[in-house]
Structures are given as C-alpha cells and as structure tokens.
Amino acid sequence: QTGKFTYDPGFLSTASCNSTITYIDGDKGELLYRGYPIEQLAVNCDFLDTCHLLLYGDLPNADQRTDFHGRVTNHTMVNEQMQFFLRGFRRDAHPMAILTGLVGALSAFYHDSTDINNPQHRDIAAIRLIAKMPTLVAMAYKYTVGQPYMYPQNDLSYAGNFMRMMFATPCETYKVNPVIERALDRIFILHADHEQNASTSTVRLCGSSGTNPFAAIAAGVACLWGPSHGGANEACLNMLGDIQKMGGVAKVGEFMNQVKDKNSGVKLMGFGHRVYKNYDPRAKLMRETCHEVLGELGLQNDPLFKLAMELEKIALEDDYFVARKLYPNVDFYSGIVQRAIGIPVPLFTAIFALARTVGWIAQLNEMIADPEYKIGRPRQLFVGAAPRDVPPLSAR
Ligand code: SDX
C-alpha cells in the first residue's frame, strides 16, 4: 500500500498562539497595531513611533520618542567586515539572497553577547535589527550596481537615511525629497506587522529553539521571499508589465480569462489573501500613497498605475473574484509606488523585509517573554504506509 499525502488546511490554520500585538478582522478588512487602526497610524505617526508601539505596547511620548529614535540612529552602521561577506555574491545575485545571508551573518557578530532569555539583550537585538536593516538593504543594492556603499547619516530621518544610502553617491550632495520620504515611511508602517503570517510564524518557530534573534530573523527573510507572500509585489509588477506588453488595458479581459482558467496556473498577483475576505486596508492606503508619489513626480499618467486601477475595477465587478472574495492586498500597489521612487523591482521584497523586521522581532520577543512557551513542535496527520516487514532484496 503506498501512502497518499492529503493536506488538511484546517489542521495548519488552527490558532497557533495568543498575541497582543496585531489584530486583523479579515471579513471587515480591519487591521490594528496594539489597538490603533492602521489608517490612523499611517497618517498621524512615523515608522519609528510605530516600531516603539509594536515593541513596547504603546506610542512613545515626546521624551520616549527622542530616546528611541536616538537609540536606533546610533546603531545604523554595520561592522566593516560585513563588506567582505557581500563580496562572496555574484553582482547579479537577487537582493533577497544577499539579505538572507547578511542578516544571518549579523549573528556572527552578536551571537556570543546575546542571551535570548535576557530582556535587555532581546531589546538591544531589536534595536540593532531595526537600525541595521536599511543599511544592509542599501548595501545589497549598491553591491549589485557596482557603486560605493554610502554610510548612514545620523541627522536624517529613518526613511531619509535609507533613501540617501540607496540613491546618493560620494560625487554629489543628496537632497531628500520630503514627499518621497513620507511615502516610504508610510510604506514601512503598512508592512510593519501582520499577526501570524507565514514569515512571522517562521520566526516564532525558529526562535522557539532558543537560537539568537538574528538567525531567527534571517529565517523570516527567507520565507518572505516566496511569490505567494512577500515576493508578490515583485510578481505583481512583473504581471502588470506582461499585460502591458500584451497590449495593456485592451488585453485585460484576455488576461482575466487566463486567471479564471484553473489549468493556466495564472494568478492575479496582489489579489487575494489567506485572512482578508474584504479589501486589505493597507491596499487602500498604498493606492493613496501611489497617487501622491506619482503626482509629486509628474507620473500621473503612469501606464502601469492606470492598468492596475483598470484591473482592480474589472476584478471587483467580476463574479469570479466577487464569489471568491478576492480583493487587492498590500502588494497590489506597493510595487508601482516603489518603482516610481526608483527602487528596482528585485529590491521590493527586501524593502518589505526591512519594514517587517520590527513585527518579526516584536512577535519573537512576545513569545520568549511568555514563561509558558516551549519549542514549537507542529504535529502531522500520518496517512502513509501501514506497518510492514522488510522483504528480502530478491522479493523487492
Ligand atoms: C502577503 O498572511 C499574510 O498576512 C501575508 C501578508 C503579510 O502582510 O504578511 O498579508 C502579505 O503575503 C499578501 C498576499 C500576497 N500574495 C499574492 O498576492 C499572491 C496572489 N495571491 C494568492 O496566491 C492567494 O490569494 C493567497 C496565497 C494569498 C491566498 O490563497 P488562498 O488561501 O488559496 O486564497 P483563497 O482560499 O481565498 O482562494 C479562494 C479561491 C481559490 O479558488 P477555488 O479553489 O475556490 O476555485 O480563489 C482563488 C483560489 O485558487 N484565488 C485566486 C487568487 N487568490 C486565490 N485566483 C486568482 N488569483 C489570485 N490571486
């Protein structure tokens, strides 16, 4: 009898933990970080305020804000040895391959001094990771384009510093565009946490063995890379580009027919969600951010943005999508706005990882702080061969 593997989605979708960090109502399309609606945070706060909220449970007052921003700013540089680690990669390596390696390599510098069960050690690891991710993502980018690394500049904002490390060169002074700076900061807020998604669950499971937080976050980076998860923004932009090549808006109907044909394997990337069966609130905010950035850059007639809005309009009126409660998710517009800012497509998921690091580390720290937590050990439904005796070779 040969075993037949059957997958029981219900088995894996049971609640995996208690958490106080992020609440999602998938049917209503609601997302709250520590009780604050994402719509209010995206407008009234900046990303570092949101990091403070996710890590410590509340928004910082003025003194706490100054202290937290200062602590992060003072940890933005990475050890000079990290440059030699990069040199092992081909210049055309995918930025997520590089980032997975770089984040894991951070553990080589901090593993010995980090006791995951010490709250102070967990806190400094969180600060270091939040502070260093923009530097590592920018280094990965600079390495692939053969430009010198730009060191962090402490008088800039978190988003402004990242922009300068990405786009400046030593040859000229770089001026941060405040509209782009605000848009990037908002993109970070929208991606900061999302309860027990695949990469967060990976970080929790990895961290539950007691490994250091840098290694656990590296596992999250690797999981996020997948096109069904954080890689969807890159896949979505490539999909829009393919439709554009097919003939643009005029070919949307033909493309949608491919999506509805189950045998085609074609998905409408940036649509659908494991939890949201309504509009992802982040997608609405991302579309507004798109409008702002394209307006600022004089790209209001960006063909891919127009194509995306047409796709969304058609899908939201199409019975196939309505019946399956398929709506735009966070990835549908995020690629268009990042491309307009000048971020290369392969780097989109690295930006997602940069932003999600605070969520990963907040969720990891919440788990480790729980005295009841144990190493994760999911079970299985065994549907394989029944017990049997080993036959002699002649009888096999
Ligand atoms: C992220 O978990 C998180 O929170 C993740 C995330 C986060 O912040 O961490 O929100 C980030 O990962 C967002 C999702 C990004 N992925 C994509 O945009 C890739 C395209 N979307 C899908 O592959 C899909 O929607 C999933 C994987 C996200 C969800 O897949 P499910 O669980 O199968 O969705 P479902 O059960 O709601 O599907 C219902 C039906 C199925 O068809 P039927 O078998 O009922 O006929 O809709 C179909 C699905 O096949 N379907 C799609 C589709 N998504 C689901 N059909 C076409 N295009 C799609 N995008």
UniProtKB/TrEMBL annotation:
<dbReference type="Pfam" id="PF00285">
    <property type="entry name" value="Citrate_synt"/>
</dbReference>
<protein>
    <recommendedName>
        <fullName>Citrate synthase</fullName>
    </recommendedName>
</protein>
<comment type="similarity">
    <text>Belongs to the citrate synthase family.</text>
</comment>
<dbReference type="InterPro" id="IPR036969">
    <property type="entry name" value="Citrate_synthase_sf"/>
</dbReference>
<comment type="pathway">
    <text>Carbohydrate metabolism; tricarboxylic acid cycle; isocitrate from oxaloacetate: step 1/2.</text>
</comment>
<dbReference type="InterPro" id="IPR019810">
    <property type="entry name" value="Citrate_synthase_AS"/>
</dbReference>
<dbReference type="InterPro" id="IPR002020">
    <property type="entry name" value="Citrate_synthase"/>
</dbReference>
<dbReference type="InterPro" id="IPR024176">
    <property type="entry name" value="Citrate_synthase_bac-typ"/>
</dbReference>
<keyword id="KW-0012">Acyltransferase</keyword>
<dbReference type="InterPro" id="IPR016143">
    <property type="entry name" value="Citrate_synth-like_sm_a-sub"/>
</dbReference>
<dbReference type="GO" id="GO:0005737">
    <property type="term" value="C:cytoplasm"/>
</dbReference>
<dbReference type="GO" id="GO:0036440">
    <property type="term" value="F:citrate synthase activity"/>
</dbReference>
<feature type="active site">
    <location>
        <position position="273"/>
    </location>
</feature>
<dbReference type="GO" id="GO:0006099">
    <property type="term" value="P:tricarboxylic acid cycle"/>
</dbReference>
<keyword id="KW-0816">Tricarboxylic acid cycle</keyword>
<feature type="active site">
    <location>
        <position position="331"/>
    </location>
</feature>
<dbReference type="InterPro" id="IPR010953">
    <property type="entry name" value="Citrate_synthase_typ-I"/>
</dbReference>
<keyword id="KW-0808">Transferase</keyword>
<dbReference type="InterPro" id="IPR016142">
    <property type="entry name" value="Citrate_synth-like_lrg_a-sub"/>
</dbReference>
